[in-house]
Design a protein that fits this description.
By secondary structure, the protein is mainly beta. Helices cover 9% and strands 27% of the residues. The chain contains 2 helices and 7 strands. The strands form 2 sheets. Strands 4-5-6-7 form a 4-stranded antiparallel beta sheet, with no helix packed on it. A 3-stranded antiparallel beta sheet has the order 1-2-3, with no helix packed on it. Strand 6 and strand 7 form a beta hairpin. The longest helix is centred in the first third of the chain and has 7 residues.
Length: 117
């Protein structure tokens, strides 16, 4: 979540006390990028059971380059830092097969993230 506090004492505390996620961000690699000329992308998936788009990909953010193989992404704010002022505003997404690191803004429009830099 980008709007709640970060940090809980345990996974069980987060499960019992935390907000349920309404969106998921999933990195999707283009395994055959050399032949299909398609870049990797970050999919935004609707997790809200009351939504008409529940369980569907509602947005695809294509990367500007081919062959990155997006991998092991994280947040700009650590989930265990217990700092109420820290917000998960940016995803930090490195490419396993490239020297590129993308910073993706998920706070400005969580349903339609964009590359910050």
């Amino acid at each position: 979540s980008t709007d709640g506090p970060t940090g809980y004492n345990s996974p069980m505390e987060a499960f019992n006390s935390g907000q349920k996620e309404k969106l998921a961000y999933v990195v999707c690699i283009s395994a055959k990028w050399k032949t299909n000329n398609k870049p990797d992308f970050v999919a935004t998936i609707d997790l809200d059971p009351s939504s008409s788009t529940y369980s569907k990909i509602i947005h695809k953010l294509e990367m500007p380059n081919l062959g990155d193989e997006l991998h092991h992404w994280g947040w700009n704010a650590c989930s265990s830092c217990k700092d109420c002022s820290a917000r998960r505003r940016y995803m930090i997404v490195p490419g396993l097969n490239s020297d590129r690191v993308y910073v993706i803004d998920v706070a400005s429009n969580p349903r339609s993230p964009k590359i910050h830099k």
